[in-house]
Task: structure prediction
Amino acid sequence: MKQIKAALLGFGTVGTGVVKAFADNADLLRQRLDAEVVLTRIATRDIERSRGVEVAPGVLTQDVDSILVDPDIDLVIELMGGYEPARTYILKAIAHGKDVVTANKALLALHGPEIFEAARKAGVDVFYEAAVAGAIPVITAIRENLGVNRFQSVFGILNGTCNYILTRMTDEGADFAEVLEDAQTQGYAEADPTFDVEGIDAAHKLSVLISLCFGTPVDFDQIYTEGIGAISALDIQFAREFGYKIKLLAICKEDGGRIEARVHPTMLPQGHPLSDVDGVFNAVRIMGDFSGPIMLSGRGAGMEATAGAVMGDVMAAVRNRHRDASGRSPACGYRSDAIRSLDIKPMDEIQSHYYLRFMARDQPGVLGQIAGILGGEGIGIARMIQTERHVENTVPVVILTHDTCEANIRAALAQIDALDVVGEPSRLIRIEASLD
Ligand code: HSE
Result:
């Protein structure tokens, strides 16, 4: 039986899961593959630490370069994360004719086109199923199974940390800071949670999905990104009263040759399948012209879930290499001469329904002033609540708007925030009413 040799770069949580999969499910790999795949080298800085998995003598090394230039190694699995040196290592592995499997969404979001082009020229594969939504096979689904579709929209709950925090805030009525601290203690959030809670991780993943769906490189800085740090228990409570749940949603919509690309807290109707995706789970809802709506959900992170996705890629790479067919499928799903440049729609031009919360002084005429400004900007009020809860002599006034343009909302909020009867900056949360 032909032998394919693989090497692992990075021996953290997911890397440990990959070693475990090679050992625990070796029989399945033998039953499903026509070639034998062997993990021959693992590069890690710390070769002394025990990870609770068995590694044969001589497999561990600190010398990454010896792997990258070794002609016997066919496949490099990059699980180091970060931009550098991961980018340099991947490009070097490709230059030496190796296929690459990576879970590195940050790298792909910023350097995907460079890596994919290098792979195309070298005739090797780059697989990255584990980069988006962990165990959910969304990359392969879009690239292979759904390839004939023109995609209209993609909605994703793509960050398990945020979904866990928002779920607990919803269930317990707790505030963000309190839940974050507890999540960190329990290991559900990183010690430095910036990439997760500020929406950057979800935006990286959205960028990868957009390239795949539309065959366009994405300028990452053009993805509007807003995290969950400003969501309060009060907003979650009002959302519930209006029949919504708040999720950090990654949104992509095709609109007349332009793309909407944004990540922000979003109110979703209670009872919609996406709003029922709770805890550390992820979900992706895709609308294609042939497929109609598809929703996939599952574990977006964790050792086994992510390692399982990596192993699916390893198996695909082994199959291609065994048949000398590496590079048969373009990494971004489109032929290089079909890659086009689509513009990202500026946020000011998007249309949405909005939840607006003002902390206003409880005196005659205040509501009239707020409603007058909204009316002046052509914003229609759909629903409204003013409660008797008193917070520092102010009352929350909450307004849900009809479908309106973000620029008008911004203009209205600037005027309302300048009123001396309004106590603190107004709060805006977008509502996704239809999800089609
Ligand atoms: N940090 C990510 C999350 C998992 O919380 O979903 C890895 O992509």
User: Anything to note?
Assistant: Residues 303-322 form the longest helix (20 residues).
